[in-house]
Here is the input.
Amino acid sequence: MTRHTLNRRTLLGGIAGTLALPLSGAFAQADRPVRFVLPNATGSGVDAITRSAQNALAKALGRPVIVDNQPGAGGIVGLQAIARAPADGQTLGVVSNNVVIFPSVLKTMPFDMPGDFTPIAVCGYTPVVLVANPKVGAANAKDFIAALKAKNGDMTFASGGNGTILHLASEMFLDETHTKARHIPYKGVGPMLTDLIGGQVEFATAALPSVQAHLKSGALKAIGIATAQRVPAAPDIPTFAEQGIPGYVVEAWFAVIAPKNLPPAEVKRAHAAVVAAFNDPEVKEAMARQGNVIHIGAQEAAMPFFRSELAKYAALVKKAGVEAQ
Here is the structure.
């Protein structure tokens, strides 16, 4: 299909929608669900956030919302799906820091970040916790660092994919503590946690919502939380600053994006829906329970934020010595 044909069909569809529903835009076509693509596996922090807000987003948009997990290649598959989708309001995405880390850790990118996307809003951040299989035997950061040094680089750590925020967060910890470990990347957080609990790998950093149940059951042990202060959702987990590592703070932010060239009216409508959904009392309660900090930024501030984060993580990747693959 040519660009000319696509634009013509989009225009005709818009005219038809306007004639049929004069007070509505594309989002008001109740028979067509909005697809939220997640470049993350089921069970990840971003997945928990989106599913907690799913009903409120549907209400705010006036249409059903479908959550579509596409975690392949550490998230690249899902991002490609968003970038290639028509800019008609049918497809949105919920993403994390990974999107601004990829350009620094991948030799080639199948899309431009952030040029091939329309940032809608930065919504807040999720606490990151370093967790270990109980067999490691560490009760705190001091014990864990001693275990790392005793194994002299042979301990293994998992991530949801090479170059993801969870991979980089672990590399940052190793850099801060002058320790070494072997990285084992997985295709998503779900498989990563399965093997971590099973003992195939020994530790990982993870979004708090994705591991809370495993911490309560004892399947995993929290070494520390990478926030500036303890979080109400997990008050018993000490920060790394408390444990003598003040430089280890990671904010795993999350944001809503769309394909590039989304019409301004649809951008405005999507941003308003995100604000309404995350201000819904039930969603706010769920976010607090998970430990997420919600702060919806202005749409105009989203693109400058993405560009500043690109520069920030490029510097962090270089410092951590993560080689592009």
In short: The two ends are 33 Å apart (CA to CA).
